[in-house]
Amino acid sequence: QLQESGPGLLKPSQTLFLRCTISNGSITTDLYYWSWLRQPPGKGLEWIGYIGAGGDRYVISPLESRTSISRDTAKNQFTLQLSSVTPEDTADYFCAGGPIETIPGASWGQGIRVIVSS
Fold first, then answer.
1. I want to staple 4 with a disulfide (CB 3.0 to 4.6 A). Which of 63, 99, 109, 115 is the partner?
2. 24-33, pLDDT tens digit by residue?
């Protein structure tokens, strides 16, 4: 079970910071991967990237320069940091996770709406 948390409203140029808390499982489970995705209004789902149980990480090229995915093993959480946000970053953001063969993940959070507006 996954749960996203973070701010719902940001101004342009601010940094978005989201957390995903994992329940009933461990972020360090072997061969598990933990992903962030987003869905802008009226558009399809976009996979942002992942962090693996071993700490390996990947972010898609268009977002790589301003995105960081990290984890806190003590809190069983992983995080998304997206800098210099613009209104184009307005979206429902989801975290997901599960075994590698299920990437982006078999388990999903319910999502959190993030609006970027001045």
1. 109
2. 889 999 999 9
